[in-house]
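User: Can you predict the 3D structure for this chain?
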Amino acid sequence: MSAINGTVLAYGQTGAGKTHTMEGPNMLIDDPESSGILPRVAKEIFVKINATEAPNEYKVALSVVKF
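Assistant: Here is the predicted structure, written as structure tokens:
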């Protein structure tokens, strides 16, 4: 794996579903069918890290800002 930076932006009027899309109903990874984008991406990042064969050190950071 190589270093990757990314941005996901949800923009729209109040009540349009931005939080639901990003987080899902409860921000848990336990229910993959209803998970939002953030828990799905987080899970996939750690699946990829665990699948690497060489012992490496990884830094994962996530920032969320809601207005």
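The radius of gyration is 14 Å. The chain is about 30% helix and 0% strand.
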